[in-house]
Amino acid sequence: MASVQVRANVLIQASGGGVESSEGWAVHVLGPELIEYRSGEAACLVNVGYRDAGRAREIYASESASDLFPRLREHLQSALPMLHGHYVVV
Which tens digit of pLDDT belongs to each residue from 6-61? Predict the structure, then answer.
């Protein structure tokens, strides 16, 4: 019986408060209202909003979803604990 090895995705803190993955994707905070998501050679900008009531920065992942970034929402969710500040993916 052949054994299958599955590598765990490793996230590391990047300079500037971003997150990089061993799977080849990265999230970088460009400013208070903008995040860059990069997967391989492709990249997109993701809007961030802020609501006073919730005091959380809302990452609008659905706006940037496309065939180029099928795991965008999942990757942003996994990066949240390592980003500076309180973020939620909406």
Answer: 678 899 999 888 999 999 999 999 998 999 999 999 999 999 998 766 678 898 88
pTM listed for this prediction: 0.82
What six digits make up the tokens of 61? 């992942």
Q: Where are the domains of the chain?
A: 11-89
pLDDT at 47: 92
Please count the other Cβ atoms lying within 10 Å of the Cβ belonging to residue 75. 23
Residue 84's nearest CA partner among 24, 21, 15, 38 is: 15
Asked if 35 contacts 85 with a C-beta cutoff of 8 angstroms, the reply is: no
The token pair at 37 is: 């998501």
With CA atoms as reference, report the closest residue to 18 among 6, 31, 27, 9.
27
Secondary structure (3-state) at 79: helix
